[in-house]
Design a protein that fits this description.
This protein is an all-alpha fold. It has 9 helices and no strands. The protein is globular and about 55 Å long. This is Sigma-70 family RNA polymerase sigma factor.
Length: 198
Amino acid sequence: MVMMIIATLADDSDKVFMLNLYKDYYGLVRKIVYNITHDAENIEDLVNDTFLKLLAKISLLRTFESCKTAAYVVYTSRSVAINFIKHRDVANKHVYYGGEKDLREALVVLEETIEERIIHQDEIKEMGNIILRLPQKQKELLYFKYFLEMDNAQLAEVLGIAQASVREYLTRARRNAKKLMDKEMANNHGLQQPPANP
């Protein structure tokens, strides 16, 4: 569907830009959407929704460098996926309350799931806060690697660095994140930090 809409664009340069964007980022958008929703049945619709949102922002996208474009595509994909989950959860809640299951048993399971989700979210939030304090390139590198599970070739392309250098950049970024995490833990628990290695 989105391809048909792109084909109807009046401005040929917009058409070429969007076709290239679709070709370059289709795989990434699909992966992000699936990693968040785990819904194979609706994935193509969600990918289309993402590109339709991007199509509406074509003039803004054309001003970005490739790294910012990638970040914007990631943000839009996540937004579409999260909205889908919210709507699905509301729909499931209505279906659930209309069913004949034992409500008390289901609520216990739901409570345990929510508790696990909160703990997991706290861990992700803490790690996210650490990553936010890193330099911009390291921040993006760790986010794309561990949250979006991009491989080294994708990282090199999105961040504009040589593929052979990705491992070195990752090592440096992880080392800095670990230092910040250790410092944070030491501050939270009133511990002294171990001396730096000479």
